[in-house]
Amino acid sequence: MGIIVGLIIGAISGCIAGFLMNSGGGWIKNIILGLVGGFVGSFLFSIIGFHATNIIGSIITSVVGACVVIFIGRKLLK
After folding, report:
1. Is residue 60 packed enough to be buried (19+ CB in 10 Å), middle (13-18) or exposed (0-12)?
2. What is the pLDDT, as a whole number, of residue 9?
């Protein structure tokens, strides 16, 4: 996957996760959140044996990972 496609998927998944978790932020925060969420989601899904094979799978993986990152961040900063 190219860098541009990765950034677009990161932005989309970060926006979706921010909306689902009611977390405000700008585009840069959403891109970073989506990219970090992609790593976290890939790790979590690989533990249970799932792997993303297309763009939709990558977005779902990134959204789940970003939601986990938001949840953990809220618990740590509380």
Report:
1. middle
2. 86
